[in-house]
Amino acid sequence: MSELKKLRVRLTFPQELIKEPVLFRMAKKYDVMPNIRRARVTDTFGEMILELEGLEENLEQGINSLREQGVVVELIEGDIIE
Amino acid sequence: MGHVKGLKCRECGREYPIEPIYVCEFCFGPLEAIYDYAKIKRALSRKSIERRPKTLWRYKELLPIDGEPQVGLNSGFTPLVKAENLAKFLGVKELYIKDDTVAHPTLSFKDRVVAVALTKAKEFGFDTVACASTGNLAHAVSAHGAKSGFNRFIFIPATLEQSKILASIVYEPNLVAVDGNYDDVNRLCSEIANKYRWAFVNINIRPFYAEGSKTIGFEIVEQLGWEAPDSIVVPCASGSLLTKVWKALKEFKEIGIIKEVETKIYGAQATGCSPISTAFKQGTDVIRPVKPNTIAKSLAIGNPADGYYALQAVRESGGAIEDVSDEEIIDAIKLLARTEGIFAETAGGVTLATYIKLLKEGKIDKKDCTVLCITGNGLKTAEVLDGKTVEVYHIKPNLASFEEALQRIKNKEGK
User: Which CATH architecture has domain B80-106+210-385?
Assistant: First the structure.
């Protein structure tokens, strides 16, 4: 049985996706709960810091679908390998 | 007792006690160490610093520890070399190299941050330290951790070359090679850091670890006779070093060690991994993550945790950020070696090449007193120079053969 998992991520949206309900659609389709903590949006692109909670495979699929649409999904820690 | 008050979120300002935590529970912003500067001002002066051993711990009141230093007791206080030959070559007035190519014990500035991180890890009572690294950080954690008696876990991507592994594995840490790409390794390490009670130096110890970089800034000021230079050029990977050098100058002013800070801070990146430089040039605050493609592996952080804060520091100081090609990096490594006798790793090439570019663009004045932060030793990345050095003169073991070569050398010099 898969367990509920939480993942803290930073999403960067390209300009063409700023007006699209990308996050809502992903959350609904993959049963992932987003908990937004911070966001910064300019007229050229947007950035969002949030926690995603869901079953591991759903998180995986949800994140992949965001990436396929052009959203950059990264851990909030930034790159850890130094 | 130390002089650190606690941790504070860089985004929302919420304060936290001194614990091995790194992110604000509310806004997920990064946490930073904050100090009681009034108390430090009473405890620290130029004279009291000058009386202490020449290590990074001579500024211990401005580092986030509670007791006495325990790790890296011989680290820091690297030479500030007056680069007269290089200055003459470039036509500039006053140039210095902050030479961390000779940092103790593993020849990069990571010896500073890890000294502070592991001292703090001791204070927290950890018995195991860890990091994810392809180079300098792995070397520093492996070596400092060996000396100070920690269990050590070093995570690397399984694709890392054998030559890079040697300078870590010789200290006999638990070296774990993870199958998968950089993203996979990053994600796994984040999970491990959240699950095991280990001191993961650049994750849960990051607020303490990062403060160690300030010692470069403190030393520059002290070695210039208690004056801040006009400009400092700092290489940017995560952006942390640059923000901490800036913080160091401001702290010295805050506690009255220096009167004024009019230093401009300049960031240096490789064009093949330049998310901070790109954001600076575009005039935006948002750092777009990139996939690194450069020979400057020690700066190849595509998603820099402190990129935004590095941008802020550069803008606040009136500096700039530039990026340079791999070819410019190699040329700069060679230039530094042949003029100053200092062999820097690729990050050092990035710093010098960026300085040269900023001079050409008129963004740094030739009359400025400038310091270049050279953060690691060239022996660590020697392979980038394969086929790009001057020729070797092969001779037979007899005088005639030598004299033939000598003639070739003289002819070449005569040109």
Answer: 3-Layer(aba) Sandwich (3.40)
